[in-house]
Amino acid sequence: MEYVKAFLCGGALCAIGQILIDRTALTPAKILVCYVTAGVALSGAGLYQPLVDWAGAGATVPLTGFGHLLARGVRRAVEESGALGALTGGVTAAAGGITAAIFFGFLVALVCKPRPKR
């Protein structure tokens, strides 16, 4: 059942993004920013954690989950370090994912040969 919940939540978030791409003039970059911002806002309001508890990876893997991670990291760092935590908490919380993205991106760049766009 855990996989079904993750699929439903992640699929719904992806479907909403696709509808926004198809039906609005929003660019994918603007939709990306909206998703991350929505994750931060919903997390700040205390509404995203129940979704994470219900859907698991279906809520944490999409971009809204990245916003939730940033907000959670900032909240924790502010509690521990005060106002300075507002600047460092998000990056600290997301450091593992950012590092993995850079590392695996580098590995793919070593293996694949770039081609000019046609």
The figure for the number of domains is 1
DSSP summary: helix tally = 6
Portion of residues in beta strands equals: under 5%
Distance between the termini: 44 Å
Roughly how many Å is the radius of gyration? Answer: 17 Å
Order of helices and strands: HHHHHH
Q: How many beta-strand elements?
A: 0
Please identify the structural class as seen in this structure. mainly alpha
What is the general shape? Answer: globular
Quote the average pLDDT.
93
What percent of the residues sit in helical stretches (DSSP H or I)? over 70%
Topology:
Elements: H1 2-23, H2 28-44, H3 48-55, H4 57-60, H5 63-81, H6 85-111
Detailed description of the structure:
- The structure is a single chain.
- With 118 residues, this protein is an all-alpha fold.
- The protein has one domain (2-111).
- It contains six helices and no strands.
- Helix 2 (28-44) packs across helix 5 (63-81) and helix 5 (63-81) crosses helix 6 (85-111).
- The longest helix has 27 residues, at 85-111.
- The termini are far apart.
